[in-house]
Amino acid sequence: MDLNTVEDVRDARLREPWRPGDAWLGGGTYLFSEPQPHLRRLVDLSRMGWEPLTRCPDGSLEIAATCTITQLSRYGRRFLDAPAAPLFEQCCRAFLASFKIWNTATVGGNLCNGLPAGPMISLTAALDGSCLLLAQDGSTREVKAAGFVRGAGVKDLAEGELLRSVTLPGRALECRTAFRQASLYGLGRSGALVIGALDPVDGSLAVTVTAATTRPFRFWFPLPPTAEHLRTTIDAAVSGDEWFDDIHGLPEWRRHMGLRLAEEVRRELVHTPGEGAR
C-alpha cells in the first residue's frame, strides 16, 4: 500500500533529531499493509548491518531486531545445536505467511507490533528473552520480552525508542519445550498459542500463554505443577478482559483453549505415571 503522507525516508545510520510523524522501518510488512496517516518520515534500519543472530560466549543467543523470519527459521533448523531449537521453526510456522513475508518481516517488527498473535512474542517470552532498547539520547535499558508487550498493540517503548535486539539465555535454549497452537480456521491467525519449557538443571517448568490473551503471560513453577495447580494459577492471573476478543475467537473460547493447551504441554513435559488429570 502506498503511504501518501510520508514525505521522506532517511537512513538510520545518519543520526538526526527524532520528530513527530517519524517511524522506524524494518521489514515494513505491517507499515505498508494499511494506511498510516500519522506518518511523515520513515527511518530505515535495513542498512544498519546488524548481525542477524549471534551465539555469545556464555551460550546466550542475540537476535537482532532486523533478523528476518527466514533467517531465524534457517538458523533454528541448521545451526542451533540445542534442545529448544525445534521451537524456532514451530513459532516461525505460526505466522502462516508466504515466503515473501518470511523474507521481509523481522523479529523486531513482530514484537513492536504487539499483536496478541505475534509468534515472535511467543518465542522470546517463552524462552525468557530480554529486549535491549535504545533511546534517542543513546542510553539503553533492558526489559523482559514477557513484559515488553503490555496489551493488544501496547508496548513498553518511549517516543523514538528503538528495539535493538532480543537475547535468549543459554540456559533457556537447553530446555525441553512443547508447543501447542489453535485457530478457528485451518490457515487462520492463532487463537491460542501455549509453550512449555522444562529446565533440565532444576526441573522447573515455565508455561507461556499467548494469542489467547491480550499480552504474554509466563508462569514459572519451581517444580512441575499438578493439572489443578496450573489451571488455578492461570485463572487467578488472567482477568476476564485479558482474554482477547476479536473475529478470530471469543474470550470464552480462548480461555478454554488456553487452559486446555497449557495442560497438554504440562503433560508432554512432565511424565508422572498415574497422576491423570488432577
UniProtKB/TrEMBL annotation:
Top-rank taxon, per record: Bacteria
Protein name: FAD binding domain-containing protein
Pfam families: FAD_binding_5
Domain FAD-binding PCMH-type, first and last residues per copy: 1-173
